[in-house]
Amino acid sequence: YAGLFLSAVLAAMARSARRFERVSALLGGEEQVQAHAHHAAVFGVAALTAGLFMGGMWAKYAWGEYWSWDSKENWALATWLAYTIYLHVRLLDGWHGRRAMWVLLAAFGTVVFTYLGMSLLPTAEGSLHVYQ
């Protein structure tokens, strides 16, 4: 999640480059900040993909199933899908730059919900992944 958090911070900076002119200039300008945000997102998605895969392997060993459709697992999948949408949308014409940064920020919303808000759902009570 650290790479995804960094990409969200950089996306927010790119969206409000005028407020962060000095920092943006240190990083090479608004376009370079967007590139850094993209690279951080790619790293975060690769780590998330590896985590989902290894978590499935561990779950098979621990519980006998790769995927149990638990609410926490589903939100981890939703996070992965949101970032996959960002990676694909960014390839479309007209979706570079500021528009892509909005998608990146929206995708980070799924990270925040998966990490903090999922335990607030009524289905979280029976989850194997909510520790209180």
- Pick out the low-confidence regions: none
Shape: elongated
State the order of secondary-structure elements, H for helix, E for strand.
HHHHH
Structural class: mainly alpha
Q: How much of the polypeptide forms β-strand, as a percent range? A: under 5%
**What's the β-strand tally?**
0
Distance between the termini: 21 Å
Helix content: over 70%
Give the oligomeric state.
single chain
For the sheet with most strands, the description reads: none
Report the total helices.
5
C-alpha-based Rg, rounded: 17 Å
Chain-averaged pLDDT: 84
Written description of the protein model:
This protein has 5 helices and no strands. The protein has 132 residues and is mainly α. Helix 1 (2-15) packs antiparallel against helix 3 and helix 4 (71-89) runs antiparallel to helix 5. The two termini are 21 Å apart.
Which keywords apply here?
single chain, 132 residues, mainly alpha
Could you outline the blueprint of secondary structure elements for this entry?
Layout: H1 2-15, H2 21-26, H3 30-63, H4 71-89, H5 98-117
Q: In a few lines, what is going on in this structure?
A:
By secondary structure, the chain is mainly α. The protein contains five helices and no strands. The protein is elongated.
